[in-house]
């Protein structure tokens, strides 16, 4: 039996057909008859990467203020930075009037309406505005309250809620106001209307410490890549892509990997790395740890088979690796696991729940 391990952190870079009928349908996958040259495979993968590299999630730090968590939000143009209580149990954004001046923003608009919100721990009231809001470098239009009165919130600059929008209480007419996550999603800046949260306790004995993280558009996890027992990457995001041939790492990570293999060098003709024959027998396994689960490739799995080299435009007698470089990368994505990884595992692509599953093949 194959156990499918859900990995919620990987972007699905795959084209799907129309919804399947009720019964299970199996289709064979065929390798093309025409052998693709190594340099063509590498060039094709880099071209595909150019279309996949737009990051659709982003993370910002969360500040542990001992009894609540804060995130930094910019309000207006130019942005006036405020530290707001991060709250998933409510759905409104409001700021103390002392911490935001709409007259200093070129994009603010007074809606001419008042708001009043009752919380279990206090209450707040004031005027409603719309303005530009910036979180983690992403900007969108948001309706929020500017509080002239607030009780139970001493020492705080305001609050931002990320709960369901039907919890919205900021308008007098009872309409549901989209949360910042809703607006990031509707403006196409994140791929799903989801946030992930990571909290840690304060460890230094103080009253405030930046030790948490909020991820917008999905969830974040620390993945890693190791050569033998040597860690060569602490990656944060990656892609599982059946349309990519190779296994591609960021330039820093691929350099760190091949530093462990004496004499390994980039072959400019193919775009792949070559391994000296004297080192082949000494090669170690490479392990991708994703969502806490280790997926290991043996040397025979990440090397181009010797009997294929000449047919694929390589130099006969030279050993090539399927693991190549993405080049310089500013998107935050650290790897693409293409066909040469997926040939060794069973993969599931769940578009309904936006997740990828990987398991050992039967």
Summarize the structure in words.
The protein is built from seven helices and 25 strands. It has a six-stranded mixed β-barrel. The chain has a five-stranded mixed beta sheet with strand order 2-15-23-16-22. 13% of the residues lie in helices and 38% in strands. The protein has two domains: 5-56 and 220-360, Cathepsin D, subunit A, domain 1 (Beta Barrel); 58-216, Beta Barrel (Cathepsin D, subunit A, domain 1), CATH 2.40.70.10. With 362 residues, it is mainly beta. The radius of gyration is 25 Å and the shape is elongated.
Concise structural overview:
Belongs to the peptidase A1 family. This protein is mainly β. Helices cover 13% and strands 38% of the residues.
Question: Which properties best describe this structure?
Answer:
362 residues, mainly beta, Cathepsin D, subunit A, domain 1, 2 domains, 6-stranded mixed barrel, 5-stranded mixed β-sheet, 25 strands, 38% strand, elongated, disordered N terminus
Secondary structure layout plus pairing:
Elements: E1 5-7, E2 11-12, H1 38-52, E3 58-64, E4 69-75, E5 80-87, E6 93-96, E7 109-119, E8 122-135, E9 138-151, E10 158-161, H2 180-186, E11 195-198, E12 209-216, E13 224-227, E14 230-233, E15 237-240, E16 247-249, H3 251-258, E17 265-266, E18 273-275, H4 277-280, E19 286-290, E20 293-297, H5 299-302, H6 306-309, E21 319-320, E22 323-325, E23 333-337, H7 339-342, E24 345-350, E25 355-360
Parallel strand pairs: 2-15, 5-10, 6-9, 15-23, 16-22
Antiparallel strand pairs: 1-25, 3-4, 3-12, 4-5, 4-8, 6-10, 7-8, 8-9, 11-12, 13-14, 13-19, 16-23, 17-18, 18-21, 19-20, 24-25
């Amino acid at each position: 039996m194959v156990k499918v391990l859900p990995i919620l952190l990987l972007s699905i870079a795959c084209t799907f057909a129309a919804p399947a009928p009720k019964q299970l349908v199996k289709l064979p996958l065929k390798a093309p008859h025409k052998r693709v040259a190594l340099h063509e495979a590498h060039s094709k993968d880099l071209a595909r990467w150019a279309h996949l590299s737009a990051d659709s999630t982003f993370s910002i730090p969360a500040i542990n203020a001992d009894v609540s968590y804060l995130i930094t939000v910019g309000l207006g143009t130019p942005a006036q930075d405020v530290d707001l209580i991060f709250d998933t149990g409510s759905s409104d954004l409001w700021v103390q009037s002392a911490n935001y001046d709409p007259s200093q923003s070129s994009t603010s608009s007074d809606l001419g309406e008042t708001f009043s919100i009752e919380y279990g721990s206090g209450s707040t009231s004031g005027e409603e505005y719309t303005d530009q809001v910036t979180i983690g470098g992403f900007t969108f239009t948001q309706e929020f309250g500017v509080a002239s009165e607030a009780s139970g919130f001493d020492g705080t600059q305001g609050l931002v809620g990320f709960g369901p929008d039907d919890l919205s209480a900021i308008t007098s007419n009872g309409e549901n106001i989209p949360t910042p996550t809703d607006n990031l999603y509707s403006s196409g800046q994140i791929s799903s209307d989801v946030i992930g949260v990571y909290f840690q306790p304060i460890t230094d004995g103080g009253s405030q410490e930046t030790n948490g993280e909020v991820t917008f558009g999905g969830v974040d996890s620390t993945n890693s890549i190791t050569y033998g027992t040597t860690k060569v990457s602490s990656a944060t995001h990656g892609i599982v892509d059946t349309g990519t041939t190779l296994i591609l790492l960021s330039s820093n990570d691929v350099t760190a990997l091949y530093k462990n293999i004496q004499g390994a060098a980039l072959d400019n003709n193919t775009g792949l790395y070559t391994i000296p024959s004297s080192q082949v027998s000494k090669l170690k396994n490479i392990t991708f740890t994703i969502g806490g689960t280790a997926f290991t490739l043996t040397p025979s799995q990440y090397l181009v088979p010797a009997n294929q080299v000449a047919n694929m435009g390589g130099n006969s007698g030279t050993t090539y690796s399927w693991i190549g470089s993405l080049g310089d990368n500013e998107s935050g994505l650290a790897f693409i696991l293409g066909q040469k990884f997926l040939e060794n595992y069973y993969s599931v692509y769940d578009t309904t729940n936006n997740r990828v599953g990987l398991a050992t093949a039967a």
